[in-house]
Amino acid sequence: MTDQQQLWDAATAQAYDTPGQGMFSPEVLAPTVEVLSQLAAGGPAVEFAVGTGRVAVPLSEAGVQVSGIELSHAMIAVLREKVAEDQMRVVQGDMTTTTAGENFSLAFLVFNTIANLLTQDDQVRCFENAARQLAPGGCFVVELWVPQLRSLSPGRGGTLEVSEPGYLLVDTYDVLQQHVISHHVQFGPELSDGPAARIARTPHRYIWPSELDLMARLAGFELESRWADWDRSAFTAESRSHVSVYRLPSA
């Protein structure tokens, strides 16, 4: 089993969905589906790291033919509880090499997931893999957070990103390797029947927007649009995330 397979195991897959809340809330999903539907322009789409279908399922319900690529068997199993194979094709494999077909109008990779690839080479290969599967003029959409290195105090290697009842998120940085490990700490009365706290760690390689643009150019894409969020708000120096739309040349 690979490190990523161990990270996205059955327990994580079963706990991943939070219907109606957080990243599954209508406020998050509705603008995401609207933008992706418009960019698909009536053609088929492929989601890299489709997971449990958080975006793919409502996008399919909106009328877009969606296929998926997913490394985790456990995440695919949860997706299959929602949608059958004949309704949404999902290919198990790594998003740097696995293909779900050709001549897609849209490929998309959301919720910071390109950062799960821990080397620059693999991140470039992900762009190249998207380009291979798109039709001429097709676009690749990447949603990604902006590294918050300005939050690092001198001599400190980490930042507190979230502090709320029952949950802490602490990020620790290796700025030489562009690696960040997110430490998710859950605690409170709901855990009283077990350990006082639970901690999970997820590793990432962070990417600056300009570096992401260069990766896209190496794969033949040009940056078409960049917004701070799915509502198409302006991207600024203070934005903490971005939605970037890259397009291949037309035939």
What order do the helices and strands come in, and which of them pair?
Layout: H1 3-7, H2 10-16, H3 26-40, E1 45-48, H4 56-61, E2 66-70, H5 73-80, E3 90-92, E4 104-109, H6 120-133, E5 134-145, E6 158-164, E7 167-174, E8 179-187, E9 197-205, H7 209-218, E10 222-227, E11 241-247
Parallel strand pairs: 1-2, 1-4, 2-3, 4-5
Antiparallel strand pairs: 5-11, 6-7, 7-8, 8-9, 10-11
Helix pairs in contact: 2-5
Describe it for me?
Residues 46-138 form the Methyltransferase domain. Keywords: Methyltransferase, Transferase. It comes from Arthrobacter echini. It holds the Pfam family Methyltransf_25. With 251 residues, the chain is of the alpha/beta class. It has 7 helices and 11 strands. It has helices at 3-7, 10-16, 26-40, 56-61, 73-80, 120-133, 209-218; strands at 45-48, 66-70, 90-92, 104-109, 134-145, 158-164, 167-174, 179-187, 197-205, 222-227, 241-247. It has a 7-stranded mixed beta sheet with strand order 3-2-1-4-5-11-10. Strands 6-7-8-9 form a 4-stranded antiparallel beta sheet, with no helix packed on it. The chain is globular.
